Amino acid sequence: MFKRVAMVFLAIVMALSIGIGGVACNRGGLVDESLDEEGNINMNKPLVIRFAAPEGQFGDEIEMFAKGFKELYPNVTIKYEPIAGSWTEKLAGQFAAGNAPDVFWTDEVQSYASNGLLEDLNPYFEKYGVNKSDYYESMFALGEYEGGLYLMPREYNKVVVYINTQIFDTVFGSMSRDELPFTPREGTNYPANGWTWEEFVETAQMIAQKQDGNFVRRGAEISFSWGSSGPIIFTSLGGTIRSESNGQEGIDFNNSTNQAILQEIVDLVESGAFNNEILPDVGDFFSGRIGMMFNSRPATSTMEEADALSGKWDVVSFPTLPDGAIPTGASGYVLNAQSKVKELAATLLFYIISEEGQELFMETGNCIPIMRSLAEDENAMWRQYPEREINQDAFLYGDDEDSVLPYKYEFDNLNAVKNFESVWKGYVTPALLNGDMGIAEAMEYSQSQLETIFSNT
Question: How far apart are CA 108 and CA 276, in angstroms?
């Protein structure tokens, strides 16, 4: 499986390289068709911005942006181009043919930026008079590559703990405040924002329940295979994955400290405190038999739609880890460096993060804007979803500087960035949790698999 994924990535990079080579001869003569002779955007000329994204995910917001932008630029048409199937491969083919969209969605910039295919957005902040400090700057980190900024983040997205309130009412509802394993939120027997990892673990242990020797309820789904969860928890508890010696990146996974940490996690799985995502005996969180789950803001819509959870869930902040790390992440929009309407397309990206654009964004769903003033406004539209009252402050809790990206971004090596999550999910997590190996054997195997992330073969 790993070889197949790696070969797909290799094909994409080769296609991207061909694409940049094919357009390089025209780079010096590239004419921005959106500008007039004086270098200003031509307000009277009919222009088209091609805006691509995976089919079925971002169409509503793109159409909202298009509607608002057209009020400023009546002669501009934003052509939404949904890409079905393997959108990364199709984008690679478009770049190779010199026919890539002007703007497109992505959750990873290194593959494109390393081949010179994306426009560095840093100069535009000064040019347009936009201050990065007006936004959650941790979100910009996802789009950084070798000193440049290549992605305009779409949302502010911290990982939080979703709780099944029905389970909490059953387990903790009759307890006094002093009996609870956590400090409760005022007026509830649910955890308050700011609880610790130790409180989270104790809570999960108290939720676990067996019947006739089998678990019928588990404490928490920690999504150990998820790059925004498992590796961050593991390293925050003192574990190591990446190593460096003489300027060379490597893997330091199979060691005694890691073994102790992972043994504790495995023990918590065996005790019922944590769910076994490889062998899910009680189902996932949405089955209604797990007390807590790590996930991010967009999951709220799924919560409302799940029959076992409708009206029976709430949120609390991610438990405070020893190093204070809060897992986070985002996706966003990038600008094709070879766009024929580059200045206009850049203006669109900055319109998206303007106050007007962010207001439109909040109308399309339940995501949190990256503009601080709007996100922190107690009357902001994003707080109106769902219609009932939940602990909305959990999504903003903690200092922005403690927000950390998925672990793959710890690596400098581009192949490691691309391959880490597939190996962590496809090899490391199953080795630890599928019961076929002891912890020592699983760690040795995981070490060997993690070492392959630096290679394309």
Answer: 29
State yes or no: cis peptide before 386, omega within 30 of 0.
yes
Domains 2-156+330-398 and 159-328+406-454 share a fold: yes
Say if residues 56 and 80 touch (Cβ distance below 8 Å): no
Mean pLDDT for the stretch of residues 5-21: 43
Q: Write down the residue that tokens 């949405």 correspond to.
A: 286
Whether the per-residue pLDDT at 27 is higher than 90: the answer is no
Q: With bands split at pLDDT 50, 70 and 90, how would you rate the model's confidence at 16? A: very low
The per-residue pLDDT for 5 is 38
3-class secondary-structure state, position 260:
helix
Mapped onto helix, strand or coil, the DSSP state of residue 210 is strand
Say if residue 170 is exposed, middle or buried (CB neighbours under 10 Å; 0-12, 13-18, 19+). middle
Tokens 């703990």 sit at which residue? Answer: 161
> CA–CA distance from 196 to each of 237, 294, 325 (Å)?
12, 14, 12
Taking CA atoms, 105 is separated from 13, 61, 250, 364, in Å, by: 18, 12, 31, 16
Q: With contact defined as beta carbons under 8 Å apart, do 182 and 193 qualify?
A: no
What would the two tokens of residue 403 be? 């927000």
Q: Model-level pTM?
A: 0.91
Q: Which of 70, 32, 116 is nearest to 337 (CA)?
A: 116
- Count of C-beta atoms within a 10 Å radius of residue 130: 14
- CATH (residue range 159-328+406-454): 3.40.190.10
Q: Where are the domains of the chain?
A: 2-156+330-398, 159-328+406-454
**Exposed/middle/buried for 22, CB within 10 Å: 0-12, 13-18, 19+?**
middle
Report in angstroms the alpha-carbon separations of 277 from 410, 423, 450: 25, 16, 20
Half-sphere exposure of 113 (CA within 13 A, CB side): 21
Its CATH architecture, for the domain 2-156+330-398, is: 3-Layer(aba) Sandwich (3.40)
Question: Which residues share a beta bridge with 48?
Answer: 77
Assess contact for 163 and 206: CB atoms under 8 A: no
Summarize pLDDT for 34-75 with one digit per residue, the tens.
999 899 999 889 999 999 999 987 999 999 999 999 999 999
Q: What is the pLDDT of residues 295-343, one digit of tens each?
A: 999 999 899 889 899 899 999 999 999 999 999 988 999 999 999 999 9
Q: What is the pLDDT of residue 86?
A: 87
